[in-house]
Amino acid sequence: MNHTASNIYLKLESENPGGSIKDRLSIAVIEWAEHFGKLTKGQTVVEASSGNTGIGMAMVCAKKGYPYVCVMSESFSIERRKLMRFLGAKVILTNPAHKGTGMVIKAKELADRHGYFWPNQFENEANAWIHEQTTGPEILGAFQEASISIDHFVCSYGTGGTLLGVGRYLRKHSPKTKIHICEPSNAPMLYSEIPTQYPPSEESGDENGNKYPSTSFESPHPVWRPHLLQGWATDFIPRLVSSATKEQLYDSVLHVGGHDAIETAKKLAMNEGILSGTSGGGTLSAALTLANGLPESKNIVVIIPDTGERYLSTPLFQNIPSDMTDEELQIAMSTPSTPPPPPGLPPVTKKATEWAKKQAESRKVVIFSLEYCEFCWTLTSFLDALGVPYHKIDIDSFIYAKENIGNQYRAALCEWTKCTTFPQFFVSAKFVGGAVDACMMWKKGELQKLFKKSNIKSADGKFNNYSGDPFEFLPKW
Q: What's the pTM?
């Protein structure tokens, strides 16, 4: 996909344990806080993040034993929320209309109210320090080892930590390297040359004595607009970016449109086998534009901040189908799709049949299931929603493995019910059917009558006032 004369090298920060470049600042700000006594054992950490820092912080806090709360705008991807919660974090969602500033204000409010530790990634120098100590040396060291010069370095800015840290390192150790910073074309805050005005300190306030939360402003940056590049350019210029500007750590500002970023990320995946988000696609798009304008071949290093899997619910994957396309259907239909042979079940024994019937008679509601069967989960989830008690027997579980006893019971059930699929649902020792049968019976009002006839009730006697569609419990993956 690189049709320029230049060599473009990608630094894949997705290889970090949490999947993004923000893992670096996460460990840095926590260990900085530990070293300087700003974080005590068991204290909750809170941070505002579009997701990648949140995931990195959740990972670090999980390892170190700190509870973690991430404040994130509801506009960012669902995958990020789930990854953080999977790591044990709590995620507080803010109004998208409040933008990045609203996230930061909320984080500061929570820190003040509950005594949480707030690293403040947009201002914390440890954010830049870790890149000066690690990212910069890694890049330059690799090229020096290969005896290759770095002519251009391209990155984007979110907090500004990468720009400030790597910029300082390259200015000192590779002064001929041109440094370029990317921002969205519809939110060109650096290009505007309009600075963000910060309060003098956390304790500053207005003329009436009202205190400003740190990193809050009279108004958001005037040229900022919503954009598709998650993690880039929130609605203010962070202090770390302002520091990089004052220190003259970049030579030019490059601009990228959201659609160009998406298309470049797709090409990177399909042509190079590298999975990136819109952030990486945007940075690479800018680098390709830069390379096209160079008069001769140069070596360009591009930071790819994260991976694409945390963008599945965003416009990046909007046109990627989940069902088979017409072309895929044609491929599928080109062979007969021969089914595999059925599981070999042992002969039916009288003992196994008696066991199955005894179990069916043991409770008013009995479910014979397979332990990790999605349709078995459908039935149990539905009954849980109704509040109906049931007895579930997983005939493929470990306790029935010895001497193939589980398959003996399975063979007996299949012969008795004339049904080879699971779950098998019994009410008052009568075989009702499977998960879909139960859902259909409920929709027709038949299951309610059967429960009433068998005197089967929920704890509240009203089936928890369930009024939904039972098919909502069918597997969705």
A: 0.84
